[in-house]
Amino acid sequence: xxxxxxxxxxxxxxxxxxxxxxxxxxxxxxxxxxxxxxxxxxxxxxxxxxxxxxxxxxxxxxxxxxxxxxxxxxxxxxxxxxxxxxxxxxxxxxxxxxxxxxxxxxxxxxxxxxxxxxxxxxxxxxxxxxxxxxxxxxxxxxxxxxxxxxxxxxxxxxxxxxxxxxxxxxxxxxxxxxxxxxxxxxxxxxxxxxxxxxxxx
Length: 201
Prior knowledge:
The chain has helices at 43-53, 65-83, 92-104, 133-165, 167-186, 191-200. It has 201 residues and is mainly alpha-helical. It is elongated, with a radius of gyration of 19 Å. It starts with 42 loop residues before the first helix and ends with a helix.
């Protein structure tokens, strides 16, 4: 994913390095040393973390598993499209591949060709996952107001994060939300397989 970020590189001879809140950074010691990180509270970061954890998930637990899985796919695609990542040049599949599969889940085991069987049979996920688009259209017809209202609220949260904290932080929180949403619908054991299917279908 192409990003337009300003990069600062420097070599410091110092005992203390202060990095402002929400700045992405990498520090490498060039000699033998001991490094200690101290995090100070940052109200905006805590507020947005809480907002993401409590953001609506417009998918009803009472829906059949195939409908929940279809709604999840539609939610992820609609959310990424609505946020116009990188001026609309990034699809949901590209964002999921870059932010989740290539980073967070790169070294996580799990089936790539199908969902693992969850321990709770009541939560069994239909593995015929690569959706027919008409099922998604059906879903919107049945629950359009519920779904679009929830989506609108989530998009609003991410637009506010972008305004206050910038693109890198918004993208980090977006990856967090997508991961939480997938956990909630298909379970932790099925998450990597679901994300892989999102990219491959």
